[in-house]
Amino acid sequence: MKGSAASSDTAETIDTGEVLGNATFFQAVMNVLNILTGVGLLSIPFALRQAGWAGLGILWLLGIVTNYTGKALVECHDVVLQRAKAESGNGAAPPMIGYEDIGGAAFGAIGHTIVSSVMYVELLGTCALLFILEGDNLFQLLGTKLAGSSGGYMVLAALVMVPTVWLPDLKSLSYLGFAGITATSTVTAAVAYTLLTGGFPAGAVTSVGNWATMPLVFGIMAFVYSGHGVFPSVRASMKRPEQFPKVLDVAYLVVGGLCTFIGAAGYYMYGNAALDVITFNLPKGLLATLCASLILVNPVAKFAITLDPVAVAANTSLATVTPGAPAGVRRFAVRTLMAAGCLAAARFVPFLAYVMSLIGSFLTISVSVIFPAACHLSIFRGKLSRRRLLWNYAVVGIGVVCALSGTAASLRALLQSTATA
């Protein structure tokens, strides 16, 4: 791809400073789990507060749909890669093939532009969201001891988060991913302990379905399964990229199970009092403090891998324009400036759940649901079975409905929150 990922077994022809193609199956699973677990998972009880128990159906539906579109994206990638090899005349693979190139192959130059623009904005928005989560968690944990607001804590968090973008490759990031997954697992255990010991207020009010506010959850739940913009990078980092569909299956099964448990347990315990991050609801004391401390690991673990595709794209473009510049310096400058921009955006609109819903509704659903299925329809035109054809159209339809209704609802909620802040 001319930006977000590279092919699995070729080196870049331009010295961009990126190293790819050495991660194992386990490391790839860790990277995908790192992408999918964290912010969205911890907000599932809040999403059920908006949707009622019916929200679990949305969670499962979007899990099935996004697992399929992840695999569809891989199928498209392979076709585009083979075409590029054929067009090269010598059978050599091009240096980079990824999501935006798939959009270009499906819909021409406008497809390339739309897919890359939406994908990069989504990833940068997610990076800003990670700063918001870190600031909120630190403020919840420490109060005003080190900073006067969550925005101040975002700046302190940046001192730890930004250096992670300087790590050399996704294999290195897999170790951070393991730390983030460990933190999520510990929080899951804490939620289970609270549920089993009865350490929560009795009589929480729940409902079967809250139809008026249900559109708000489309974005939050899509956000749980978002990662399609990064999937090509993870696949490109593997020693055996043909195993990537199995990587997705393992990761999605784990994430789907965790989301179902945390969502159901959190909503059962706290009902309409569920906060935008479940750890904020846990009883004050050692357990809540431990969870809040561990959750601080998640944004640190996710930040670099989320920023990676955008940084690779910018770095590669600059390498073409300024071939004489030292690759290491260029890589350092690009990633640092992008991280600083995400921090500035996070401080401007610090409303975690509604920003997540907006990003998820408009951007994530486009990248993770609509675009992969639409590209698959175009690239495999005339070659799909009737079942696959209808399923792709159904996926596009589901994505469009969720995106339109979810974006409208989250914009209203965000504007109301901003007006009353």
Automatic annotation (TrEMBL):
Membrane-topology annotation of the record: Multi-pass membrane protein
List residues of the Amino acid transporter transmembrane domain: 22-410
Q: Which Pfam families match?
A: Aa_trans (PF01490)
Subcellular localization is given as: Membrane
Q: Where are the transmembrane segments?
A: 25-44, 51-70, 105-133, 145-167, 173-196, 208-230, 250-270, 282-301, 351-377, 389-415
**Keywords from the UniProt entry:** Amino-acid transport, Membrane, Transmembrane, Transmembrane helix, Transport
Family label: Belongs to the amino acid/polyamine transporter 2 family. Amino acid/auxin permease (AAAP) (TC 2.A.18.5) subfamily.
Name this protein carries in UniProt: Amino acid transporter transmembrane domain-containing protein
